[in-house]
Amino acid sequence: MNAQLQNLSANLGGTLSLLGEVTVNRLGFGAMRITGDGIWGPPKNRAGALAVLRRAVELGVNFIDTADSYGPNVSEELIAEALYPYPKDLVIATKGGWNRPGPNQWTHDASSEHLRKAIEGSLKRLRLERIHLYQLHAPDPVTSFDESVETLAELRAQGKIHMVGLSNVTREHIERAQKIVPIASVQNRYSVADREWDSVIDYCQQQGIAFIPWFPLGGGKAVSDALAKAAKAHHANPHQVALAWLLQRSPIMLPIPGTSSVAHLEENLGAGNVHLTSEEYRQLAALKK
Known about the structure:
Radius of gyration: 18 Å
CATH topology: TIM Barrel
Shape: globular
Number of helices: 10
Strand order of the largest sheet: 3-4-5-8-9-10-11
Strand content: 15-25%
Largest sheet: 7 strands, parallel
């Protein structure tokens, strides 16, 4: 057995406070991959998808990220089916702002009308009275960004949202949003190989905003070789090292690796047992694209 699977718990990655109000374990779960091919329709193995969600919670995952566009609707429905009634400490984060014409197709709609309908749909599917963390999935090029955030602020004031987050944004977007409503999290693409948003992470750390990296396991050959070398030294696998690097990158980092496999879920959570040396961390950091 992989040595990193012997002592499994999501809390081994440490904890993070969202707006000083809610504490979650820093190894979360992204629920995009529990849907069908092209993030469309039901999963091929429904029982397997439900098992992954239940195993995640058993292992201490108390932050699950989803979106109404995953399926669409399928991911949220599966979360409720698998986990409702929810553990008291479970934070479910969902997102709105996309339409789904078909498999692998995504179109913007962050209009006020769309977001209000999206919130109601997510509340119903997740069987919640209030969304723990609701994220604008992406700025809409034909809708004012401020209008989108103002809509979420209004829904927060109405009690339908506890905390507001952003996704796929720049520092300028975050600063504009902060003038409207407290921002709990930012979710952008980021990995040891893909470091475009380093400056956003630094800003989030200054502001106490959680950073949720999506596609956290991306990498090219040079990165893959370096991860494999470090993995061998730690009796781990490269994915665990990639996640461990993210955890060491910043205390506000909240990785949400997703999978439709219980075995892969357990491997990902094993990252909490991997502690890179300063030199290993620096060597990997130097390999960004």
